[in-house]
Amino acid sequence: MEVLRADTELIERIKQLDDSNAFKEIFEKYWESLYASAFKRLKSQDECSDIVQEIFADMWKRRNSLRVTGSLNSYLHTAVKYHVFKVIENRRWERDISSPENLHISVCDASLEFEELFEVLEIALDKLPERQQLIFRMSRFEGLKSHEIADALNISQQTVHNNLHKSLTVLRAELKDYAPSLLFLTLLN
Predict the structure, then answer these.
(1) What is the CATH number of domain 1-107?
(2) Where are the domains of the chain?
(3) CB under 8 Å to 181, separation ≥6 — which residues?
């Protein structure tokens, strides 16, 4: 919980004082893991750097109205996943329109703003048992593999898989109205 409190204090300093040093501390703390998370899916240094820069630029631009209801780590990693999802959709769209035989374009309507989407997801996650929440966050927000989660929590990989399955089942039901925008929930593992 020390990390969460430290992040909360940094966010408050950014919001209340326009503290660029607090922002720089957050940037330095999370940039590498956010980049690695994006790179794991996109395999493009330029696109991944652009995504992370865009997230931090947007965070600074909206610093006075920024609302992070859960952990900053989860918030930022969810932002990466959302942006990765958009890049993948854009790649597919570009590939489809460049080929005359693929004129049936199926582009996901990402009509929700990220903050609204994140808030809806956080509310749904709060309905899960604590252990399932933790396993889901470690898997989907921190990008850990099932064996890494099992080792960290001293449980079997099958327990991790079972908890993820239960979590995804509940979340899909809770978020069925947001299904197109939440496709990124299943992008990992």
Answers:
(1) 1.10.1740.10
(2) 1-107, 111-189
(3) 108, 109, 110, 111, 112, 117
Quick: pLDDT tens for 134-178: 999 888 877 888 999 999 999 999 999 999 999 888 888 877 766
Q: Which of 167, 101, 15, 39 is nearest to 23 (CA)?
A: 15
Q: What is the pLDDT of residues 9-38, one digit of tens each?
A: 999 999 989 899 999 999 999 999 999 999
The DSSP symbol for 63 reads T
What is the Cα–Cα distance from 185 to 24, expressed in whole angstroms? 29
Give me the pLDDT at residue 70, please.
77
Q: CA 77 to CA 85: how far, in whole Å?
A: 12
DSSP H stretches of helix in the chain: 2-17, 20-42, 45-61, 72-98, 114-126, 130-136, 146-153, 157-174
Tokens of 26: 């957050």
Determine the CATH number of domain 111-189: 1.10.10.10
Distance of alpha carbon 33 from alpha carbon 39, whole angstroms: 10
Tell me the pLDDT band of 126, cut-offs 50, 70 and 90. confident
